[in-house]
UniProtKB/TrEMBL annotation, chains A, B, C:
Residues 76-473 form the Ammonium transporter AmtB-like domain. One of its GO terms (cellular component) is plasma membrane. It is found in: Membrane. This is Ammonium transporter AmtB-like domain-containing protein. SUPFAM superfamilies: Ammonium transporter (SSF111352). Residues 485-505 are annotated as: Disordered. Keywords: Membrane, Transmembrane, Transmembrane helix.
Length: 517, 517, 517
């Protein structure tokens, strides 16, 4: 082993000295070194995160046995363990956790020969991103000892943050190495946390379901990256016969769709409480139901032959969850949620049917999963609805809840009333000013996402990051040992299969050189 | 687009004027119009539901920010947000939600070429039915402003109601268009809500797990519809080679089975509280465990070759959950739950092995998923067990809980005792009278289900509803764009495949005409 | 039917009289009788369990309507139904339930022709084991009437106990009949309960996530059985082409992996409360995240071609959950959990890559799922970490929590302080003594597991237990009616297929005879 490592290291050093001219090594040797380095980079990234965690994290008081409040009886000022945050959040945290790992993971298995990568890279990427998000989110919320106090809320917020990266991954699915995804994710989470801090603390915007901060960010960031990756016309013109589904892969993808759909109410309601949580669950449930029906209907109406298209069913049925996200805990009324779902479902299917082909051919932005239709447009719609709701929000409709949803609308001096919670001191904003800030957050998020995405695209195309060639796209064979299904029943075509296998391998370097020139 | 719509509209008008004589249009054109209209009908149905929701729904007080109780501190009479119903129900609601969409959806994917329709139509139908059930359930519980107050309880009850429709869908799986399912569902939910109101408010019957109101209703309603659909001998004689499973489709179906089985305790316990909920979880857990073991054993004993039959494992392992449903929160004792599970498991497997072939050949009722064995007979069994338990229920065994389970058994005058909850004023029924009412509910539900099912069968066979021909049964190709799996590796048989594809399409009209004559 | 039963009974009697010499019966007849008897044994086992349940189980007070505490108002000393244990445990119980039935079940579907058996036998075995575990766990906790009071806690503990058996099943996957698994499980649960009682009550050891009592026990017990099953060189030398995965079966297995991974925090936190539960969730979440990343990295580094190996991704990503189990509620600090995850992930992948082939070839122990790498070594690691944490645990770090985690460390006389919970009277153990006991529990569990496993191996190879021949390993055809996938499209090879089918059947008796000699 150590010998092999030394040999590989030597080869890498050798390769670096020659600055990208691989002439002395054969192609399989180069690929071998690349894959080996990718593993090392991954391990190294985990160790870096560990160092940060050592330096910055502690348990939050209600998870910390060394905090005396957990020992002292409540009547003497201790915590009431019956109301430990683990009780309040565990349930919804676990639902969101399912969305991130099973939902997103299986949703992306629709490609016929990219199932291992879809569910596997989603797993790997999310597992890294939740650690990194705990840090990035935490840096904006350090305690007095400049430490990040970890609680179940941190885990929930980390899961939510990682969703942004997985959405971006959806735009790029099959076109990147996992190292490119990793580098992208590391940048994106940092941008995500900063933008959310800006939106929540400076613009004081309400976005319960993260439609602006998560969905708009994730979608347009990913599209920005994809624009850079595919701007090379030659690359996108390569006919790739693997970019399609099979009957079985489409059914695996439905596992993802259904689990995302079922647990989405928890995603939108997870970070709010009391009647806000209750309302968020009801609104999301209704928006998703009407969105599902509308997506089926519009798919049948606009698809040639008027049959359902699995891409619409797998994705557009979920758009209602995105579109109702920002306003989930606002007083949209049950029918309002249903209208939002109907509009989102129709918008999303029409996006797939009409807009995606245009964006691909005219703007040269390739969007594998169509995240623009599931997260991008519905996310912007959610932002607009949030602004609309903010503009008509009155004390009569929300009472004290108005200041819980939009703290900046609270008066600048405390008022003592027999209210739930302590009085909130705000900025005395009017409804229309708050609506303006809601719009501002959407615009700023959009701009940051696109700019940061494009820059990230150039970064992950730099020669130090492992890349893949267009011929190897949408193919598990590049990164996975595939089951030797011929082994059991040796076929006369065994030799052909091997040739076919090597076909996937060989042209990689050739094209990488093309890209880098 | 608008042009195409106009053209289609013109053709539809044309077709209507001619009253069903399609002579001027070719078959593919007619199918095209039918599929297009189906999409429009779906969209229209969603819009109708929206109108009702606008007219009738409001947030329940504990989900309504405009209700001052959410703002006032509990000591002044406000709601304690820690005990908002979202806290009490969210967990179990979410479990039931998984059963409806992942459980039922994947359970029905066992057919080899009907997986898209199984999980997709289940998704579509349930998404529409939960909205409609919110309305139908709500019409029996209007508040003083003739509005339906929506809470997490409404969502839970809507999910439970939609289960009845999905059970009926199981009997019909593969034999109807999705418009037929939709029409059936709209009628069935209305019948379901009325029957449940009758049973709960007039008969004052206890049915915690809905075995009578959901399972008996769903199964016999579906069988009634199926009787009408298949009464045309010619239709049922058509040899359909697609009515079978594949190795992969059977594994997808096991996802449904396992998720239904795991979350069933929440289904039976969802609408009760405290020690009743605790008992319902324990009883359902035990009944399902013993039912699973028994179903395996009886499958091995009664199947030729004494091997397990996947149909039994996928379905009969769940019968214990149905059979213990009515009595889930009653004092059946742990061993009683186990006995119920054993009887239900054996009954269900024997139903599949012996009864279903008879019902199919003698009564001419085709039951694709065998819902009679999973929901029908175990549901009736549950009703009988409920009556038995009611007949032996005493104050000594239940104390105040007796009146919570059977309010009609409470004395006709209030008694002040240091009890949980406020005193209940009832009808002073005796144990045997209550048992009689329990039996009455089973019989009435059975009759209503069968009659309403048969009537519904005739309705969905009427010419205004999109129908499918027997040749197109159990085939996703009718309603879905299937992945072009040949595209990647063009085969010499590509031409044959196309011919095969068109085979699925062409004969539809021919047979519809046969049916309508 | 009764006629067939009589005939079978006659044949069994006939066979017994002849004492194993099957000369008068043909092989298919013998297999038929064996399979029939297996079904009867299963049914009989369920009835035996029923008898025990009748004799010993009652509802726990907070699930028992006949307990007056559920009727009396809390201010008069009744139970507060808002804090019924169903509220405290339901959520996490349900998560663990998903791990047992969906997690373990689908994890084992990775074999290409053993999916029905993997998910089916897991279902059957677990359904029987949870009932048996309720009894075995309960015998050590009888109430004053020598009854076992059933609560949601009993169900949770039964689920956890069944995990040990499913781990052992992983080592044996594909090599046993389901009757052998059943017999093994019945013995293992009894051993499990005794060992856990010994560890908890006598050694007074803390093991929140059951890494010692569940994972070490399950893995080494299973390896002990496997050693006996495969000690016959001839058997293990049989080349079995079915011991491999397919692309689809690997994706089904990922369902298991992902659901185990997502809900593992609930497994480790399920049986503790308050800040301990909060900490256990955080620690397990972090350990699993870092373990996942590390397993991917180490898989890429150590696998030929530096591609990911699905076996590592499916299994080693979970090792962090095992390794952090014992110390999950201890003050390992967030970074400590991450370190544990990194070590476990690396250890587990290296185990698969390097150790398993050695153990198979040198020690002749075949381990189908590699439970040694996922549960065995990480479980021992967890035990060592638990001992380490115990050795450095002080009152300053844990306050009263120290005595909740390690009751034996509490002083021998009660101290009245304003603490949470009632004062605990312990044995006054020092930190190092407690650490010694933690180590002792690991060693004792290891020894008991190996010895009991080897003995159980001999028991399930005895002629009274239905066995399978090496040629039938990893093959669903032995125990399941497989879908007739040829039926739909009759192929020219139909005749060959039938011959192939009979090939699976015929040699079974031959080899059983070989084994028994």
């Amino acid at each position: 082993m150590i010998k092999r490592l030394q040999k590989n290291m030597y080869e890498i050093a050798f390769q670096i000295r020659r600055e990208g001219s691989y002439t002395s090594l054969t192609r399989p040797e180069i690929r071998n070194i690349e894959q080996f380095s990718a593993g090392l980079i991954l391990l190294f990234a985990q160790l870096i995160v560990l160092v940060f965690l050592i330096a910055f994290t502690v348990y939050a008081p209600d998870a910390d046995a060394s905090d005396l409040h957990n020992t002292i009886h409540p009547v003497y000022g201790g915590f009431d363990q019956k109301f430990n945050r683990i009780v309040k959040y565990h349930n919804l945290f676990q639902d969101v956790h399912v969305m991130i790992f099973a939902g997103f993971g299986f949703l992306m298995t629709f490609l016929r020969k990219y199932g291992f990568s879809a569910v596997g890279f989603n797993f790997l990427l999310a597992a890294m991103m939740i650690q990194w998000a705990i840090l990035c989110n935490g840096f904006f919320n350090l305690d007095e000892n400049t430490k990040i106090p970890l609680s179940i809320e941190s885990l929930l917020k980390a899961d939510v943050a990682s969703a942004a990266v997985l959405i971006s991954m959806g735009a790029l699915l099959g076109k990147t190495s996992y190292i490119q995804l990793l580098v992208m994710g590391v940048i994106e989470i940092a941008v995500f946390s900063s933008n959310m801090y800006l939106g929540s603390e400076f613009f004081k915007v309400s976005d319960a379901g993260g439609s602006i901060f998560v969905h708009v960010m994730g979608a347009y960031f990913g599209l920005g990256v994809s624009y850079v990756l595919c701007r090379n016309k030659k690359g996108s013109e390569v006919q790739n016969t693997l970019e399609g589904s099979s009957y079985t892969s489409d059914l695996f993808a439905m596992i993802g769709t259904i689990f995302l759909w079922m647990f989405w109410p928890s995603f939108n309601a997870g970070e709010v409480e009391g009647d806000d949580r209750h309302r968020a669950v009801i609104n999301t449930y209704l928006a998703l139901a009407s969105c599902c029906v509308t997506a089926f209907a519009v798919s049948a109406i606009f698809t040639p032959g008027h049959k359902f298209d699995m891409v619409h069913i797998q994705n557009s049925t979920l758009a209602g969850g995105v579109a109702v996200g920002t306003a989930a805990n606002m007083m949209v009324q049950p029918y309002g949620a249903v209208i939002i779902g109907i509009v989102a479902g129709a918008l999303s299917v029409l996006g797939y049917a009409k807009l995606t082909p245009l964006i691909n051919s005219k703007l040269n932005i390739h969007d594998t999963c169509g995240v623009h239709n599931l997260h991008g447009m519905p996310g912007v719609l959610a932002g607009l609805i949030g602004a609309l709701m903010a503009s008509i929000a009155t004390e009569d409709t929300y009472h004290h809840g108005l200041y819980e949803i939009w703290p900046a609308r609270a008066p600048t001096t405390a008022q003592h009333t027999p209210e739930v919670g302590s009085p909130i001191i705000g900025d005395g904003r009017s409804a229309s000013v708050q609506a303006g800030y809601q719009l501002l957050a959407v615009v700023v998020t959009l701009l940051i996402a696109i700019i940061a995405g494009v820059i990230t695209g150039f970064i992950i195309l730099s020669p130090v990051v492992t890349r893949i060639s267009p011929e190897n796209r949408y193919d598990d064979a590049l990164s996975w040992h595939l089951p030797d299904e011929e082994h059991a029943e040796p076929s006369p075509y065994a030799h052909d299969t091997e040739l076919n296998g090597s076909k996937h391998e060989s042209p990689s370097v050739l094209v990488i050189e093309e890209i880098s020139h």
